[in-house]
Design a protein that fits this description.
The structure holds two protein chains of two kinds. Chain A folds into three domains: 101 residues, RNA polymerase, RBP11-like subunit (Gyrase A, domain 2, 2-Layer Sandwich); 106 residues, DNA-directed RNA polymerase, insert domain (RNA Polymerase Alpha Subunit, Chain A, domain 2); 58 residues, Alpha-Beta Plaits, CATH 3.30.70. Chain A has seven helices and twelve strands. In chain A, strands 1-2-12-9 form a four-stranded antiparallel beta sheet. Chain B folds into seven domains: 230 residues, Rna Polymerase Beta Subunit, Chain: C,domain 2 (Alpha-Beta Complex), CATH 3.90.1100.10; 127 residues, Dna-directed Rna Polymerase Ii 140kd Polypeptide, Chain: B, domain 3; 148 residues, Alpha-Beta Complex (Hypothetical Protein Ta0175, Chain: A, domain 2), CATH 3.90.1070; 224 residues, Beta Barrel (Dna-directed Rna Polymerase Ii 140kd Polypeptide, Chain: B, Domain 6), CATH 2.40.270.10; 102 residues, RNA polymerase II, Rpb2 subunit, wall domain (OB fold (Dihydrolipoamide Acetyltransferase, E2P), Beta Barrel); 52 residues, RNA polymerase alpha subunit dimerisation domain (DCoH-like); 60 residues, DCoH-like (Alpha-Beta Complex), CATH 3.90.1800.10. In chain B, the strands form 15 sheets. In chain B, strands 21, 27, 28, 29, 30 and 31 form a six-stranded mixed beta sheet that branches. In chain B, a hairpin with a 7-residue loop joins strand 1 and strand 2. In chain B, helix 6 packs across helix 9. Classes of the chains: A alpha+beta, B alpha+beta. Chain A: Keywords: Acetylation, DNA-directed RNA polymerase, Nucleus, Transcription. Chain A: InterPro entries: DNA-dir_RNA_pol_30-40kDasu_CS (IPR001514), DNA-dir_RNA_pol_insert (IPR011262), DNA-dir_RNA_pol_RpoA/D/Rpb3 (IPR011263), RBP11-like (IPR036603), RNAP_Rpo3/Rpb3/RPAC1 (IPR022842), RNApol_insert_sf (IPR036643), Rpo3/RPB3_RNA_Pol_subunit (IPR050518).
């Protein structure tokens, strides 16, 4: 019973909407489950119902509604919110605070200049759920205009009421908090030093050049062929092919470490990237909690050991 | 082609000039900048505009001048004369006030965009001896539909801002008409050239020379054919064929020797002519008088035998026989020489089959454009109008006592021209009796499905033959098509190869004055025909000079003559579109200035050195030069297909040799507008490009800047159209980058899910959520509030707010018309209209409510889908009825079964939609929008698509649009794959475009590298929602009681003959029974077992009766299809008793 592993996470880089970490001592199924949950099952809040009062813009109502839906809203509260479909306080029509947030938008162009209606003009009824402000992200955004919803010309007007609800990315991509979630196997690069020493400098440079990404290099001090950045390797096999072309198979060997994953998570801004990972783990746990042994499984009770107790809700 | 035998035993490279190969490549001047400049002055549809402008400014004046007088037959002193004619501004009269028209106004309110035809007239008034000549200016005789963007149009010369204020799209090419609110384009018509000798063979293989003559006065077809060694003339006016020698004699060529001399003294020619001469002698025709008498007998009698028909032979020969050769003072010499030339060319063709003319050769074709067609129509209508006016004037004058002062100008019939032009343009049927012209389908409604479709429609050429002809010749690609007609853009199926499209730089000429050219020719040493004897005509070394099919004379130094003419043309002394073509084989110099020839601009080269130098292009860039300056300074000239044969055209400057006379401007201009959208078309298998040309017209996107202000019957728009990442020069030139019809999708070429077989594509659900392939479909609905002859009219009333049917009228406003912005479902009423029950008879001004019956209109849309009422427009139509137009908008996201296509003829339907987390991803986090099966590649061979993927991928990573113009690699208009690969490597991708990908389902890496990158995908108009259809039970046809047919009538799916045969063969008798009867039209009948005829059930007696046997003893009940019962009864009605074998 000692096949049990204890996956570890090592955070490499952490920003508000970006996170890079290593996941060690586990396998692809766990890593992928985590990835899939981050994309599709971590809940956020997004505009779901739009009631248009006045729309004399060039874009039609559905068009604007679709654009509104895709605006990321800050969703720290989303985990504790209710899905409107199982909200007891209301019929899911967005009238209660447990499951929905109301927004208002009023814009009219009166000047000769084109007026950009942006996500900043969406007025929320709840201070915790507001359109994501890209100014917070740390990127230098001088104009800092928010997300453009529609442009208005003189005399055009847009007035609407929108209701944001909790949802998950599986239902619609607008509820997905993840912009990018991806992982890669950590490459394990082995250089046969004996063979490498026999090579001339030009040949070494040739090998370095053959890789489209900067994986290898020459140590400036020792002049040795070294691995500069193993993670730059994209499993393109170009270096291996080059070695074969040089008639030196086995000069470099690269294998993916099948139990180590390097995750890159970028968030839309709805929740922090770190929170996204934590929420995903939470949701995974909740999913596992649902799995329980049925009541009538008696005879094989002890063969599950501790697991059995857990699954029975112990 | 090198075809000499002494090369055989030499090595292959022996013929190659090594020195030439080793020579340094001449630096090429980038001439591309000429193209946008060319299109700036020319626009995309210059051919239409030029033709119409020529008609409106020149031709119409000629027509009016030729028929300028109406003279009364009753009093010949009374006349009306047209002094001048011009077309006014587009306008219309509303309540005696002139209102200016704009095209947009006409489109919206269903009126014709037309301008008055204004004439200045001079006419006599008074009677007897007190005649006075009066003048009237600017009298309207009718209204001429105006081509958009022509010189008469309100949009002419307007800049972008002014166009916008007129509600017009600046990218719209114009070149069409607005007739009763619909946009109509007159298709370019392909014709065999007029007034030219064409040598070919008839069905039996006899060699013939034919001339289709067309002059202002007459049109005729003359055929001279060699049959059984003898030569005959075929002319409609003769009963039978006529020996050609008799015709020659009738025209005064009495001496056989002179004829032989004229044809040429080659003994072979005389030998061929001998049988004809003998035949003529046998018929005892020696003198002119005898010949004329002989011909007189052959003349077809006129249908209404006029009293005296003598001298007809002579007049036929003068006016109808090769009518294009004029006869002055009964001097037939020119005609004789023309016949001799025809004979000579025939004999050449007999002796040497190569001399035969090719009817499919583009140089022998003319393109008839809207101007020419309209001028024919106008001429006919104008003459008819004059005749009518004359009749009217005569009847008025014929009356014994008139009360008012006679004013001739009042009797001009104004309506016939307006109505005639409008009707012809809207139906497209050219029925001009005067010119024996009956053509159908000349106009079409402008395709507004996509912007490219619209532009492509303007360049479409409709064929001269009917589509049914099963010959391959006219359908094949002609080498002479190079640069003039697009080699790719032709439909598939029956019209394949017949319907063509113009290439990007093609220009179609309009008529040019002949007079100055003729006098110029004589100045340059052309010897007049009159001064030449037959013998001198065909002297070796001397060439005949032909102008538009007419023999002007001969010249002893043709090459020098041609060079001189060309020099004059380049200097601008004669028209830039006049072509000079030296035909060495026929010993002729052909000069052409007629309209309808296709030509294209080329850079002139002197001994292989381009005249355009670097500094010229710099000046162009600085704006000092325009395309016209290039033309005027003789750096560029237009060549037509014939003159191209005298030129040696180098593709690139570097390839030019000593003999090169011209250099192409850009090779990709051989393609048309539609084919120009394809990136790297030169890497594709050719049919794929043809398919894309057809599909590009069905792609959704934006159709015009004013698309939302228009009221199209059907409008497909893409929600987020994009500009292709991989563009071509043509895309930028035609404005496809501004009105795109597609989106850049990241495509992974791999197999996935099994729902991607047979070209189906797998789509990413999240991409669809985010707006990929989302489209808006708008449909127009029209309601008419009519006024009737008894003064009653329809009324639109406030809907009931409760009660029965109120639910269906929820979207109606209080005015009874649906409100814009409302959500509309199928069966909803969108207008609460009521019509009076009585519409005829006595005036009934105020009707009570009971006299109205409801005539509401309901919306029929897909079940379960909701649409939105986008706009409502009210306008008055021509009959002063109120016209209410509704636009219904439906936004759709792609679903399984919707059709998509890349720009390489690779269409496919959406096979399945899959969650993003299940989609494969790369370690950069790139996840494809759609997955395409790799089996699409090997058999299609669309390498261009692969290069597009590479180029787009490099484009997104480097932030620069890449180019893929046709044949563009040498001139830098297409990025080379090597360069693209370098860019990819620089940005950390593999050079071959393949990525290392993880499965989204398992998280494990895929076994293979996946070719992945952006490809421009088009959403095509074919969507499942419009096509899907199923029915359980439903409506039936009244007559047969069988289910209806067709989706629109919610019809059933037919078990046809072949399906039935399958079931019979399988032995599934019960299934057939069920399908053909129980589920179709079961019926119960009473049959008499004795007589076998149908009986009936008598409800009074409650018994079954046989009406033949007069009893009910032997009645049985049976089931049979109602259609069968119907047949039996119909047959028995026809007195064929039908008895069942019971």
């Amino acid at each position: 019973m000692s096949n049990q592993r204890f996956p570890t996470v090592k955070i490499r880089e952490l920003k508000n909407d970006y996170c890079k970490f290593e996941l060690r001592d586990t396998d692809a199924s766990i890593a992928n489950a985590l990835r899939r949950v981050m994309i599709a099952e971590v809940p956020t809040v997004a505009i779901d119902l739009v009631e248009i009062e006045v729309n004399s813009s060039v874009l039609n109502d559905e068009f604007i509604a679709h654009r509104l839906g895709l605006i990321p809203l800050t969703s720290e509260r989303a985990m504790s919110m209710r899905f409107s479909r199982d909200c007891d306080a209301c019929d899911g029509d967005g009238q209660c605070d447990y499951c929905s947030v109301e927004f208002h938008l009023r814009a009219k162009c009166i000047g000769d200049q084109t007026l950009d209606v942006t996500s900043r003009e969406l007025i929320s009824s709840d201070a915790t759920v507001v359109p994501v402000d890209s100014a917070d992200s740390g990127y230098d955004n001088l104009e800092n205009r928010g997300i453009i919803i529609v442009k208005l010309r003189r005399g055009q007007e847009l007035r609407l009421r929108a209701i944001a609800r909790k949802g998950i990315g599986k239902d619609h991509a607008k509820w997905s908090p993840a912009a990018t979630v991806t992982f890669m196997y950590e490459p394990d690069i082995y250089i046969n030093e004996d063979m490498m020493e026999k090579l001339s400098l030009e040949k070494k440079l040739e090998i370095i050049e053959s890789s489209p990404t900067k994986v290898f290099g020459i140590d400036e001090n020792t002049g040795r062929f070294i691995v500069v950045d193993p993670e730059a390797y994209t499993y393109d096999d170009e270096v291996l092919k080059k070695c074969e072309a040089l008639d030196m198979p086995g000069l470099i060997e690269i294998r993916p470490k099948e139990d180590t994953f390097i995750f890159t998570v970028e968030s839309t801004g709805a929740i922090k990237a770190s929170q996204l990972v934590l929420n995903a783990i939470d949701i995974l746990k909740q999913k596992l909690d649902v799995v329980r042994l049925s009541e009538d499984t008696v005879e094989a009770d002890d063969q599950f050991g501790e697991l059995g107790a857990h699954m029975r809700g112990g | 082609m090198v075809s000499n035998g002494d090369l055989v035993d030499q090595p292959q490279w022996a013929g190659v000039d090594k020195e030439f190969l080793a020579a340094p490549v001449k630096s090429a001047v980038d001439k591309f900048q000429l193209l946008p400049e060319f299109l700036k002055v020319r626009g995309l549809v210059k051919q239409h505009l030029d033709s119409f402008n020529y008609f409106v400014n020149t031709e119409i004046k000629k027509i009016v001048a030729a028929n300028n007088e109406i003279r009364s037959q009753v009093d010949p002193k009374l006349y009306l004369r047209y002094k001048d004619v011009r077309i006014g501004e587009p306008s219309r009269m509303v309540d005696y006030v002139t209102e200016k028209l704009t095209p947009q106004k006409c489109r919206i309110s269903d009126i014709t965009y037309a301008a008055p035809i204004l004439v200045n007239i001079e006419y006599t008034t008074g009677s007897g001896n007190s005649l006075k000549v009066q003048e009237k200016r600017e009298l309207t005789i009718g209204r001429m539909p105006i081509m958009l963007r022509s010189s008469c149009c309100a949009l002419y010369g307007k800049d972008e801002e002014e166009l916008a204020s007129l509600g017009e799209c600046p990218l719209d090419p114009g070149g069409y008409f607005v007739i009763k609110g619909t946009e109509k384009v007159i298709l370019i018509q392909e014709q065999l050239s007029k007034n030219r000798i064409i040598i070919d063979t008839d069905k039996k293989g006899c060699v013939q020379a034919s001339v289709t003559s067309s002059t202002a006065a007459t049109k005729s077809k003359t055929v001279i054919r060699m049959e059984k060694e003898k030569i005959y003339l075929y002319l409609n006016q003769f009963k039978t064929k006529v020996p050609i020698m008799a015709v020659m004699k009738a025209m005064g060529m009495e001496s056989d020797q002179e004829v032989v001399q004229m044809v040429g003294r080659d003994p072979r020619y005389s030998a061929l002519l001998l049988p004809s001469i003998e035949e003529c002698a046998k018929a005892n025709v020696y003198t002119q008088h005898q010949a004329l008498e002989y011909l007189e007998k052959q003349v077809k009698p006129l249908p209404y035998a006029s009293t005296r028909t003598e001298k007809r032979a002579s007049s036929i020969l003068r006016d109808i026989f090769i009518a294009n050769v004029p006869v002055h003072d009964n001097n037939f010499r020119a005609k004789c020489i023309y016949v001799a030339v025809m004979l000579r060319r025939m004999m050449e063709a007999i002796l040497n089959k190569d001399a035969m003319d090719d009817k499919d050769y583009v140089g022998n074709k003319r393109l008839e454009l809207s101007g020419q067609l309209l001028s024919l129509l106008f001429e006919d209508l104008f003459k008819t109008m004059n005749d009518e006016s004359k009749k009217l004037i005569d009847t008025v004058l014929g009356k014994p006592n008139r009360s008012s002062l006679f004013d001739m100008s009042k009797y001009i019939v104004r309506d016939s021209i307006t109505v005639g032009l409008e009707r012809t343009l809207s139906t497209g049927n050219w029925d001009v009796k005067r010119f024996r012209m009956h053509r159908k389908g000349m106009t079409q409604v402008v395709a507004r499905l996509s912007y490219i479709g619209t532009v492509g429609h303007m360049t479409k050429i409709s064929p001269q033959f009917e589509k049914s002809r099963k010959v391959s010749g006219p359908r094949a690609l002609q080498p002479s098509q190079w640069g003039m007609l697009c080699p790719c853009d032709t439909p598939e199926g029956e019209a394949c190869g017949l319907v063509k499209n113009l290439a990007l730089m093609t220009h179609v000429t309009t008529d040019d004055e002949e007079g100055p050219i003729i006098s110029l020719c004589y100045c340059l040493g052309v010897e007049d025909l009159e001064l030449l004897s037959g013998e001198e005509l065909h002297m070796p070394n001397s060439y005949l000079i032909m102008l538009n099919g007419l023999i002007l004379g001969k010249h002893r130094k043709p090459q020098r003559f041609a060079t001189a003419m060309r020099k004059l043309r380049r200097a601008g002394k004669i028209g830039e579109f006049v072509s000079i073509f030296v035909n060495e084989k026929q010993h002729c110099v052909y000069i052409a200035s007629d309209g309808g020839r296709v030509c294209r601009p080329l850079v002139i080269a002197d001994k292989g050195v381009s005249r355009i130098k670097e500094h010229h292009m710099k000046e162009l860039k600085d704006g000092v030069r325009t395309f016209d300056t290039f033309l005027r300074e003789g750096l560029i000239e237009y060549l037509d297909v014939n003159e191209e044969n005298n030129a040696l055209i180098a593709l690139y400057e570097g390839e030019a040799t000593e003999e090169t006379t011209h250099i192409e401007i850009e090779p990709f201009t051989i393609l048309g507008v539609c084919a120009g959208l394809i990136p790297y078309p030169h890497h594709n298998q050719s049919p794929r490009n043809t398919y894309q040309c057809a599909m590009g017209k069905q792609a959704m996107g934006n159709i015009a800047y004013n698309q939302l202000c228009r009221m199209d019957t059907l409008l497909y728009l893409l929600v987020y159209p994009q500009r292709p990442l991989l563009t071509t020069r043509t895309i930028e030139l035609v404005g496809y980058d501004k009105l795109g019809a597609g989106q850049n999708a990241t495509v992974a070429v791999m197999s996935y899910s099994g729902y991607d077989i047979e070209d189906a594509i797998v789509m990413n659900k999240s991409s669809l959520d985010r707006g990929f392939g989302r489209c808006i479909v708008m449909k127009k609905m029209v309601a008419l509030s009519q006024k009737y002859e008894n003064g009653a009219s329809d009324r639109i009333i406030c809907p009931p707010r409760e009660g029965y049917e109120a639910e269906r009228m929820q979207i109606l406003d209080d005015d009874g018309i649906a409100a814009p912005g409302e959500i509309i479902r199928t069966h909803d009423i969108y207008i609460n209209k009521q019509s009076p029950t009585v519409t005829r008879g006595a005036p009934a001004p105020n009707l009570p409510d009971s006299k109205y019956k409801p005539s509401r209109q309901t919306y029929k849309g897909p079940e379960g889908e909701t649409a939105v009422l986008d706009r409502v427009a009210l306008c008055t139509d021509r009959n002063n009825n109120m016209n209410i137009k509704f636009m219904v908008r439906h936004t759709r996201r792609p679903e399984v079964g919707d059709k998509f296509s890349s720009r390489h003829g690779q269409k496919g339907v959406c096979g399945t939609i899959i969650q993003q987390e299940d989609f494969p991803f790369s370690e950069r986090g790139i996840c494809p929008d759609l997955i395409m099966n790799p089996h699409g590649f090997p058999s299609r061979m669309t390498v261009g698509k692969m290069i597009e993927l590479l180029g787009s991928k490099a484009g997104v990573s480097s932030g620069r649009f890449h180019y893929g113009s046709a044949f563009g690699e040498p001139s830098g208009h297409a990025d080379k794959v090597e360069v693209i690969s370098e860019t990819l490597v620089k940005h950390g991708f593999s050079y071959n475009g393949k990525d290392f990908i993880y499965s989204g389902i398992t998280g494990l890496p895929l076994q293979a590298y996946i070719f992945m990158g952006p490809i421009y995908y088009q959403k095509l108009k074919h969507m499942v929602l419009d096509k899907m259809h199923a029915r359980g039970s439903g409506p039936r046809v009244m007559l047969t009681r069988q289910p209806t047919e067709g989706r629109s009538k919610n019809g059933g799916l037919r078990v046809g003959e072949m399906e039935r045969d399958c079931l019979i063969a399988y032995g599934a008798s019960m299934l057939i029974y069920e399908r053909l009867m129980i589920s179709s039209d079961p019926f119960e009948v009473k049959v008499c077992r004795k007589c076998g005829l149908l009986g009936y059930h008598n409800y009074k007696l409650k018994a079954d009766v046989c009406s033949t046997c007069k009893n009910g003893d032997n009645i049985s009940t049976m089931k049979l299809p109602y259609a069968c019962k119907l047949l039996i009864q119909s047959l028995s009605d026809e007195a064929h008793a039908f008895s069942g074998g019971l």
